[in-house]
Amino acid sequence: MKWETLVQSLFDQQHTITEQDLFLQGNAEFDGQTLAVIGTTEHAPIGVALALTQAQAVLDTIKNHPGRSLLLLVDTQGQQLRRRDELLGINRAMAHLGMCLDLARRQGHKVIGLVYEQALSGGFITSGLIADACYAVPEAEIRVMRIPAMARVTKLPEAMLEELAQSNPVFAPGVDNYVAMGGIQSVWDSNSPEQLRASLRAALAQSNNRDRRASDGAERGGRRMAAQIIEQVLQAS
Predict the structure, then answer these.
(1) Which of 119, 155, 188, 212 is the most exposed place for a label (fewest CB within 10 A)?
(2) Which strand (E) or helix (H) includes residue 26?
(3) Residue 146: left if φ>0, alpha if ψ -120 to 50, beta else—which one?
């Protein structure tokens, strides 16, 4: 799904969102409130420069527009696999982006993630998955790693991983599996502007006082132990 189509469906002409070097930024008017919109497009690889650009946009919103809700539009192939970015400390740049989003949440900004195209590995972890809640359109592609790559890293046979993926969402790509694990709160109907707007409206109205990912994963059967372990750790502390 093109970002222009998505933005048109959500906000009509009531926005100032533009794209520069795969980075999306602008404001949008929705139900009488202004939203800050930040994101990426064209399956952007997240390198040091793009991570820091996004982080700066988040900090600018915190500083200049206290309490303004943030909408993160996610389309990324993951971290930039380039020697230059590794030498410059891409891990720290991406961690900085994640911490900026966490700061926004703790400062009272509602942060909503929406995967409208592709969401892979670290580029997804430090954006949509750090939001108060993350959503997706049905045609989105979400995964941490393809099964052949997973087989190379784990030294396990592809056939074994394929079999595991049939019964365990942790091993399988796809929007439905991330819904089952609780990483994606729900799927938004992208065929209807009215339904897209209704979904955004509901997301903005939802309380962000509690992280529901682990409990959702337990209820949906995709992550059966996470919520229980978290509760045990909290009780022990």
Answers:
(1) 155
(2) strand 23-30
(3) beta
